[in-house]
Design a protein that fits this description.
- This protein has a single domain, classed as 3-Layer(aba) Sandwich (Rossmann fold), CATH 3.40.50.
- Helix content is about 35%, strand content about 15%.
- The chain contains eight helices and seven strands.
- The protein has a seven-stranded mixed beta sheet with strand order 3-2-1-4-5-7-6, with helices on both faces.
- It is globular, with a radius of gyration of 16 Å.
- Bound molecules: S-adenosylmethionine.
- The site of S-adenosylmethionine has 20 residues, from helix 8.
């Protein structure tokens, strides 16, 4: 872990300077860069990175125990000759989103974010009109942002935010589209817990228009 954490993790450039995602990897990634916000223990991020070895994945998560779990899995994979395509920031995702250049990402993920159920705390929700505007700036036309939550009030909140951001089209034609996780969308740890507890996750695919 002591050897791998500095290799896999990074800090943001000082003084509000921008961050080129390509600079985080040994060589430019053929299929671009994707960011997962609040990856928890990294279950979803790790699966995606395995399925897409020529994409660079950047995870941001302030929970150090989760970061340690993911870094340990990455170390095992890279030591066994697997692709070195995951980088991790232990910080607030909002700082990363602000630091990345326009149209620099090929995809984004915010899965089961903390719900902040009290009305007076809702401004802390990581999906909000400001962060959706950041995602719209970061994703080129045709690329996707994926959101999920099992909290009914957050489902309504996400939809209000989505419908208020004209640069995203919600890719749903019927209930099955938000009630069923698409085949190319791996499960996350929290999602498994939510389903086991009898809650119903909603999955939202947004396309940059
Ligand atoms: C309910 S957990 C879900 C974890 C994971 N996405 C999953 O589905 O298993 C929410 C995660 O968001 C992280 N988080 C909270 N605020 C954050 C922020 N400002 N930036 C990045 N991650 C954040 C938390 O530390 C926590 O791990």
């Amino acid at each position: 872990m002591a050897e791998w954490l500095p290799r896999v993790s990074f800090t943001l450039p000082p003084g509000g300077q921008g961050l080129d995602p390509a600079s985080l990897f040994a060589a430019p990634m053929k299929d671009g860069y994707r960011v997962e916000v609040g990856f928890g223990d990294g279950t979803h991020l790790f699966s995606l990175a395995e399925a897409m070895p020529t994409t660079g994945f950047i995870g941001v998560e302030p929970y150090e125990h989760g970061v340690a779990k993911l870094v340990t899995r990455v170390a095992g994979k890279v030591a066994a000759g697997g692709p070195d395509n995951i980088r991790v920031l232990t910080d607030d995702a909002r700082l990363l989103l602000k630091a990345l250049p326009d149209a620099s990402l090929a995809g984004g993920y915010v899965l089961f974010p903390d719900p902040w159920p009290k009305k007076r705390h809702q401004w802390r929700r990581i999906v909000n009109p400001d962060t959706l505007a950041d995602w719209a700036r970061l994703l080129p036309q045709g690329h996707e942002l994926r959101l999920a939550t099992d909290v009914p009030d957050y489902q309504r909140w996400m939809l209000r935010c989505i419908l208020g951001e004209p640069r995203f089209a919600w890719l749903a034609e019927g209930r099955a589209d938000w009630l069923r996780r698409p085949a190319d969308w791996p499960a996350s740890k929290y999602e498994q817990k939510a389903i086991a507890a009898g809650r119903t996750p909603h999955y939202y695919r947004l396309q940059r228009v």
